[in-house]
Every structure is written in C-alpha cells, then in structure tokens.
C-alpha cells in the first residue's frame, strides 16, 4: 500500500529513527546517508528540517516508526 507522508517538522526531535529505518529497508543496513529521508538541524534555531528524496516510494515505514509524530501516514 502506498501512503502519503505528512511532515510536521515542529514535532521533530532529531532522533533520526526515520533515517535509520529507511536505510535498513532500502539498503539492508543502518546508514543514514543511504536513507531517502533527511533530517537536518538548523543551526540558527532549535528546529529540524525534514526532506523526502524524489526517489521515495512512500512505503510509510518512516512515519510508522516516528515516535514524535513528526511524520504521519495518510492512505492514498
């Protein structure tokens, strides 16, 4: 099933669980740079930026594992 991933950056804690589960699902290893989702810290404030790569297949794993609810699944 394909999902639409809704991003709520204001809830992000920067834990990188989304990047870890994405890299595991796509590459078989826990390596954040292989992830199709990127979480970046804005050095000027305490906020995190979340960006989905254009190659993201919307599997929804990142949102399923997001404990802060910064990523939420919505059925397509």
TrEMBL record:
- According to the entry, every stretch annotated as the 4Fe-4S ferredoxin-type domain falls at 3-22, 48-76
This protein's superkingdom?
Bacteria
What name goes with this protein?
4Fe-4S binding domain protein
Q: Provide the species name.
A: Pelotomaculum schinkii
């Amino acid at each position: 099933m394909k999902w639409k991933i809704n991003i709520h950056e204001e809830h992000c804690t920067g834990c990188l669980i989304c990047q870890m589960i994405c890299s595991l699902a796509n590459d078989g290893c826990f390596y954040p740079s292989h992830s199709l989702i990127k979480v970046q810290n804005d050095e000027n404030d305490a906020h995190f930026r979340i960006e989905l790569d254009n190659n993201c297949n919307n599997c929804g794993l990142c949102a399923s594992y997001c404990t802060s609810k910064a990523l939420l699944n919505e059925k397509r």
